[in-house]
Amino acid sequence: MFDIKTVIGENGQLGRNNIKNKLQDGNSQGAENVTLYFPNAELYDETFVLQSIRRYKEVLKKDRKEHLIAEMWVLVKGEIKKFRL
Known about the structure:
Oligomer: single chain
Strand order of the largest sheet: 1-2-3-4
Order of helices and strands: EHEHEE
């Protein structure tokens, strides 16, 4: 299963937990790949993305949930950035 989500919240901003929440949502839907779309490229920060992946994995471990997502793609400025989870 494949899932595409935008990371921008209703207020047009990227909140602290937006990426983590999108990954959790994709995982609960059984997605093996999640694609995140950054419509506002100025909000993209690779360090923040990596921190969000770490928080996502910590929550799964704490909740003892299975990790299904193998890869996350990030669409920003017409580029695809791939992250192995």
